[in-house]
Write a structure and sequence with these properties.
about 200 residues, mainly beta, Jelly Rolls, 4-stranded antiparallel β-sheet, about 35% strand, elongated
Length: about 200
Amino acid sequence: MLQAKTIRRPPDRFLKEEKFDPEKTERQIEDLVKQTNNVSSGKENVASKDTDVALSANSDIKYPSQKAVKTYVDTKTLALLSTINVPLNSNGQTTIYTVPAGKRCVLHSALLVIDADAGTSDLSIGQKGATTDFLPVQNLDNLDAQYDVGLLMPVPSATPALPQKSYAGGTIIEADVSNQAGGVTNKLFLFGVLY
């Protein structure tokens, strides 16, 4: 059986009439559009996409593209540029990295994980034809057990000071081994900044 319900009239304050203000309505619509600028029926609003790789707009409305974010992060962080095997059982050069075309590279350091006693082996790193322009000759005789790790990096305050290089795209970076006496499978991890 149905029961009757009493419907009460809302208080007068809710029934107050307001005059239509087109300027206020337009501002409200503009605010709503700004708030929803990046979402339009579930689709990307390309007018809000920012492809500036420097991310300099500092905007709360625009959003960066994936490529802009990647480029920004890649140019702001120290990166692992390469991992390569450098044999210490023979003298010679091993190509450890080639700077990508259109980029420049500043080398930072290298980690060398040895597979056996390095003995009297020496190692330097630099561009092809000038393999000491990043890291002068380093004696590795203190790396004397499997999995010992050498942190190799120039000392800017050394006398004489070794200026750092910014290598152009296409530059080949090599490790040069001399006074060979170590194992065959030594891992070299090269770190630097690409820009």
